[in-house]
Amino acid sequence: VRLVESGGGLVQSGGSLRLSCAASGFTFSSYAMRWYRQAPGKERELVAHISSAGGSTVYADPMKGRFTISRDNAKNTVYLQMNSLKPEDTGVYYCNAVGRWEYWGQGTKVTVSS
Fold first, then answer.
1. For residue 61, what are the contacts with CB-CB under 8 A and spacing of at least 6?
2. Nearest residue to 112 (alpha-carbon basis) of 59, 40, 5, 32
3. What distance in Å separates the CA atoms of residue 87 and residue 99, rounded to the nearest whole number?
4. What distance in Å separates the CA atoms of residue 104 and residue 65, rounded to the nearest whole number?
5. Dihedrals φ, ψ of 63, to 5°?
6. How many CB atoms lie within 10 A of CB 26?
7. Alpha carbons 29 and 61: distance in angstroms, whole number
8. How many Å from the N-terminal Cα to the C-terminal Cα in the chain?
9. For the residues 80-90, what does the mean pLDDT come to?
10. Which residue in 33, 57, 59, 62 is deepest, having the highest Cβ count within 10 Å?
11. b/e string for 32-51 if b means 16 or more Cβ within 10 A?
């Protein structure tokens, strides 16, 4: 089983990034997918959730209206479009699969400069 995140990097405040998470080794379409993030010195927090078929999404309040989670079950990939980024969005973003089992990616670092 692998979850491989990509798309992180350094961006200025107000900018955008699109994260991707490529999944393999399990039945991707049977799993809900989530993005979490962990800021320096803080606990890991939920960013967004998408149901297995993609019909339902949930966002943490600070991300509503700025972030969009989506998935392509044909490509076994989940995305996180992040717009209007703020310095407080800085952190390591993790992909998480939830179903019969739970899997985590290794994370991708996002740094938003002021």
1. none
2. 40
3. 32
4. 25
5. -100, -15
6. 17
7. 26
8. 37
9. 97
10. 33
11. bbbbbbeeeeeeeeebbbbe
Angle subtended at Cα 68 by Cα 65 and Cα 70, rounded to the nearest 5 degrees:
155
Please tell me whether residue 15 adopts helix, strand or coil conformation. Answer: coil
**Chain position carrying tokens 């078929």:** 53
Cα(105)–Cα(109) distance, integer angstroms = 12
Cβ distance 16 to 82 under 8 Å? Answer: yes
Which residues have C-beta within 8 Å of that of residue 79, sequence separation ≥ 6?
18, 19, 20, 21, 69, 70, 71, 72
What are the phi and psi torsion angles at 82 (to 5°)? -120, 115
pLDDT digits (tens, 9 = 90+) for 63-75: 999 999 999 999 9
Token pair 């399990």 is at which residue? 26
Beta carbons of 22 and 99 less than 8 angstroms apart:
no
Task: Report residue 14 as tokens.
Answer: 């107000």
Across 76-105, average pLDDT = 98
C-alpha to C-alpha distance for 64 and 27, rounded to whole angstroms? 29
